[in-house]
Design goal:
- The strands form three sheets. Strands 1, 2, 5, 6, 7, 10, 11, 12, 13 and 14 form a ten-stranded mixed β-sheet that branches.
- Strand 6 and strand 7 form a beta hairpin.
- By secondary structure, this protein is of the alpha+beta class.
- The longest helix has 20 residues.
- Helix 5 packs across helix 6 and helix 9 packs antiparallel against helix 10.
- The protein folds into three domains: 285 residues, no CATH class; 114 residues, no CATH class; 63 residues, Arc Repressor Mutant, subunit A, CATH 1.10.10.410.
- It binds adenosine-5'-diphosphate, magnesium ion and zinc ion.
Length: 483
């Protein structure tokens, strides 16, 4: 039996983060009362005329430039005709033969290796409404047209993805890129990113593509990965049993973790595409392209490489720090303000992310500025406060936005490095904890950790831990040599 390999191409729809819809002024607010964000244009009422949203166009061109696409100097909109109750005009305005962006690639990272996946095209279109089905028998189903006319960007990949895991990496990379650009939330749960996966198999080394199957209805990146794995397995098995793969659309069913046929090629729609007569063609000049190119952020993977090289940070740190553009910006602002890179990274990845997560906050609403970070790091590294106190000060800073120096001063939190004071505390702890003292003397070096901890506890974490350690060691060793 020949060895088969999988070939995957993804069609991703993302909702553009514009305030109004693509061809009218209705708001794109998620979760509004059904049919409250509608007007004659997006309801497709006779006599209404669409006008293209400029921000949607700019976002699309930005995405194209970021992906290295060629931006068409002339593109147009077309009507894709079909009947469905969520489509009030009976056609969707999309782009057919002259899309806005052609070609390009996305660099992805997969199992530590980089790979470029070709992009076929990027085009603009409008979303359809949403059927709201009755949950109880006897109740009516309805249509919510709020989503009708929400701008979508369709990004079609070349069939160059080789495994379900690679497809996952592609989606992750695309999402991060679009988030860096600020053009989409890419929140699959809110439906602002949707993915149709095309997959075929062929004997390894074969040049021609096999017959593809399109899988729809996945609601997470993991679901895409699972659906593809299932589908590849199904196709391999069918071929091994001597069957032929038929070109069809299949639906992923999350509960059973299986795909089921939806429609075959014979039943496929003929969309009768034709140019949209109510919209003028789109002509993008060089000047607009250059303006947009100048505003392009650094690509996520490029930024990762740069942060590793520039600040000598471990890969792991940089992966976390670049997982959001705002976080990477924040980190770099701290370093620019004077923070030591690794110390800043530790603080941000540790306390900062922990507290943000705990309070379900984003960096945007965070009261800690890069200046605060520089100051608190200086307090700890100079020994003015202990690491333990640092955490306490950080938490208060997080709540109040007060300067760390002020918090230390008003709370009497300065580190205790006074020899006489620490001597006295060490004696007390030794006297009270005879068991640990015995343990230490009988060779259990670790027992000293407990004793240090007792001194720290007595000072509410303010004692200089190195000094405490040394003092205790000296005392214990001196006493044991006496015996
Ligand atoms: P359709 O006309 O059915 O939409 P396209 O040629 O536009 O097909 O391709 C849609 C998607 O399917 C693209 O992402 C493309 O890379 C992918 N694709 C095309 N042919 C194959 C194939 N034989 N195997 C896997 N993916 C494919
Ligand atoms: Mg297609
Ligand atoms: Zn409208």
């Amino acid at each position: 039996m020949p060895d088969y390999e999988a070939v995957i191409g993804l069609e991703v729809h993302v909702q553009l983060k514009t305030r109004s819809k693509i061809f009218c002024g209705c708001p794109t607010t998620f979760g509004a009362e059904p049919n409250t964000s509608v007007c004659p244009v997006c309801l497709g009422l006779p006599g209404s005329l669409p006008v293209l949203n400029e921000t949607a166009l700019r976002y699309s061109i930005l995405t194209g430039i970021m992906l290295g696409s060629t931006i068409s100097s002339f593109s147009k909109f077309d009507r894709k005709n079909y009947f469905y109750p969520d489509l009030p005009k009976n056609y969707q305005i999309s782009q057919y033969d002259l899309p806005l962006c052609v070609g390009g690639e996305l660099e992805i990272e997969f199992e530590g290796k980089r790979k470029r996946i070709g992009i076929t095209r990027v085009h603009l279109e409008e979303d359809a409404g949403k059927l709201v089905h009755a949950e109880v028998e006897g109740e009516d189903s309805g249509v919510d047209f709020n989503r009708t006319g929400v701008p979508l960007l369709e990004i079609v990949s070349e069939p160059e993805i080789s495994s379900p895991e690679e497809a996952f990496a592609y989606l992750k990379g695309l999402k991060l890129t679009l988030q860096y650009l600020g053009v989409s939330d890419c929140d699959m749960e809110k439906g602002s990113l949707r993915c149709d996966a095309n997959v075929s198999v062929r004997p390894r080394g074969e040049k021609l593509l096999g017959v593809k199957v399109e899988v729809k209805n996945m609601n997470s990146f993991r679901a895409v990965q699972k659906a593809l794995a299932y589908e590849i397995e199904r196709q391999n098995r069918a071929i091994a049993e001597g069957q032929r793969i038929v070109q069809e659309t299949r639906l992923w069913e999350a509960e059973s973790e299986m795909t089921h046929p939806m429609r075959s090629k014979e039943e496929a729609h003929d969309y009768r595409y034709f140019p949209e007569p109510d919209l003028v063609p789109v002509m993008v000049d060089h000047a607009l392209q250059e303006v947009l190119r100048a505003s392009l952020p650094e690509a996520p993977l490029k930024r990762r490489d740069r942060l590793v090289a520039q600040y000598a940070l471990p890969e792991y740190d940089v992966e976390v720090l670049t997982s959001e553009r705002e976080l990477a910006d924040y980190f770099e602002a701290c370093v620019t303000a004077g923070a030591e890179p690794k110390a800043a990274s530790n603080l941000i990845m540790g306390e900062m992310l922990r507290l943000l997560k705990e309070r379900a906050l984003t960096l945007e609403g965070c009261k800690i500025t890069p200046k605060h970070i520089v100051e608190i790091l200086a307090l700890v590294s100079s020994g003015a406060i202990t690491g333990t106190t640092g955490k306490e000060v950080f938490a208060e800073m997080f709540e109040t936005g007060k300067r760390p120096g002020e918090i230390v001063h008003s709370g009497g939190l300065a580190q205790i490095s006074d020899q006489a004071e620490l001597d006295r505390l060490a004696d007390e702890v030794i006297a009270k904890n005879t068991k640990s003292v015995e343990d230490y003397r009988s060779g259990k070096a670790k027992a000293i950790g407990f004793l240090v901890g007792q001194v720290m506890k007595a000072t509410k974490g303010k004692a200089n831990p190195q000094m405490v350690n040394e003092i205790l060691k000296k005392k214990l060793e001196k006493d044991s040599s006496k015996r």
